[in-house]
User: Which sequence fits this backbone?
């Protein structure tokens, strides 16, 4: 399998084919994973649409991690 190149925030990471969003974040800045797990951040694709950390990636994917002002509450009003 060949490597893929993915853009995370302002950086570039090279990953093995079949990698997912979590793999990319771990390679770019593993502290971001704690923020996502804690609900204080989320990941968007190049279009700004929120995506799941388990989403598989293709070469050239653009990911942005957005840090929330407050942690998301499971029972927050819509």
Assistant:
């Amino acid at each position: 399998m060949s490597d893929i190149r993915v853009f995370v925030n302002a950086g570039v990471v090279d990953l093995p084919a079949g990698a997912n969003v979590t793999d990319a974040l771990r390679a770019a800045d593993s502290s971001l994973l704690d923020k996502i797990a804690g609900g204080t951040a989320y990941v968007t694709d190049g279009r700004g649409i929120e995506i799941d950390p388990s989403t598989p990636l293709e070469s050239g994917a653009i990911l942005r991690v957005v840090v929330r002002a407050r942690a998301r509450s499971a029972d927050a009003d819509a």
